[in-house]
Design goal:
Blueprint lengths: L15 E4 L2 E5 L13 E5 L2 H12 L9 H12 L5 H18 L11 H14 L2 H21 L25 H8 L4 H12 L5 H6 L9 E5 L7 E5 L2 H13 L26 H16 L10 H5 L6 H7 L5 H8 L7
Antiparallel strand pairs: 1-2, 2-3, 4-5
Helix pairs in contact: 1-2, 2-3, 2-5, 3-5, 4-5, 7-9, 12-13
Length: 341
């Protein structure tokens, strides 16, 4: 009988598992001698460390890449560990879908054509969802671009020849009344978080939770774009923004310039080094469930407040405040209110 994978292991590569606060590789019986004679080989604590260890053990830079199976393995264990944790997680969910479609037939990388991508997308849209189809298409294109870098193919056959599926932009618009009602349930700490979210012009959750004392400059709050770390910017002080920060510092006093604005016990921040915010997410979900159950509001996400913060701005201004490289992204995902003519 086939072994059922635990929920926490489903996003990991085949034969990987989390145990004893680390990630382990379940070694195939015939290969134990290659893994220090261990049936369970410890890869590391973090996902990035696990990928690096596995890559060093199994795949060398000069390994031959011929089939899509070769490429996807090399892409996962050598290229992906260099990406941001959120991007790694995104691709890890897509890889099983790619392997199902491209590795069972042992197709060569040089044989992949746009019609293969369209066939995969149509299948996934029919059996899964448009969101998963888009995810798989983006991962496929990225792996083929990596194949170009490796010299396996001369060009990515999907660029200019394939249009990835488009998902609908989220349309949930949070009203002032809903936000006030939800806020009434929160401890003062998280009321201030909501206020900072709005008055910092819709900064992302990770950007807010990453702010430390040293980011509070004479001219304003220094932020670093989560999506493009080369993009740093300052949200200038206003009387209201200064008042919010002053109260946050009074609730969370610290002598360390490295201390975050928002932290839990032992000054432990709500964002981990790999960008995960599971503790904060649990708090948000708990209070949101209470608010919905009490009839105070309909469900909305923390990310919906990013659109709320710029809802009264012009498209051009909103795009600049949200640090988008294209106003098309702003228009599709962050224009929630009906346009007034």
């Amino acid at each position: 009988m086939q072994r059922v994978r635990l929920k926490e292991n489903q996003a990991l590569p085949k034969r990987w598992a989390r145990k004893h606060n680390a990630i382990y590789y379940r070694v195939p019986p015939g290969e134990i001698h290659l893994w220090d004679n261990k049936s369970w080989f410890r890869l590391g604590k973090s996902l990035a460390e696990a990928h690096q260890t596995f890559s060093q053990r199994l795949y060398q830079s000069g390994a031959t890449v011929l089939t899509m199976q070769d490429l996807l393995d090399k892409f996962e264990f050598e290229y992906m560990p260099k990406l941001k944790p959120a991007t790694q997680k995104y691709y890890l969910y897509a890889l099983p879908m790619l392997r199902q479609g491209f590795t069972q037939s042992k197709i060569l990388v040089s044989q992949v054509q746009p019609h293969h991508a369209y066939e995969m997308v149509e299948f996934l849209e029919r059996t899964e969802s448009t969101k998963k189809a888009k995810q798989a298409a983006e991962c496929l294109s990225s792996s083929l671009s990596y194949a170009v870098k490796l010299g396996v193919i001369s060009r990515n056959p999907l660029i200019g020849q394939f249009k990835k599926p488009s998902t609908k932009g989220r349309s949930r618009a949070v009203t002032d009344e809903e936000l006030i009602a939800f806020s009434s349930l929160l401890p003062r700490k998280w009321q201030l978080y909501l206020s900072l979210k709005l008055h910092s012009r819709g900064r992302r959750k990770g950007e807010l939770l990453s702010v430390t004392r040293k980011n509070l400059t004479a001219s304003g709050i220094l932020f670093v774009n989560n999506k493009r770390t080369s993009d740093s910017f300052v949200i200038t002080w206003t009387p209201t923004l200064r008042q919010i920060i002053t109260e946050i510092l009074e609730l969370h006093p610290s002598d360390s310039p490295e201390a975050h604005l928002f932290y839990g016990r032992g000054e432990k921040p709500y964002i981990k080094p790999d960008g995960q915010t599971s503790g904060f997410d649990s708090i948000w979900q708990r209070y949101m469930k209470k608010a919905v159950a009490a009839g105070l509001c309909e469900h909305f996400t923390e990310h919906d407040l990013r659109a709320k913060a710029v809802e009264d701005e012009s498209l051009e201004v909103a795009s600049r405040l949200l640090r988008h490289t294209s106003s098309q992204v702003t228009m599709k995902h962050y224009r929630r209110k009906p346009e007034e003519l």
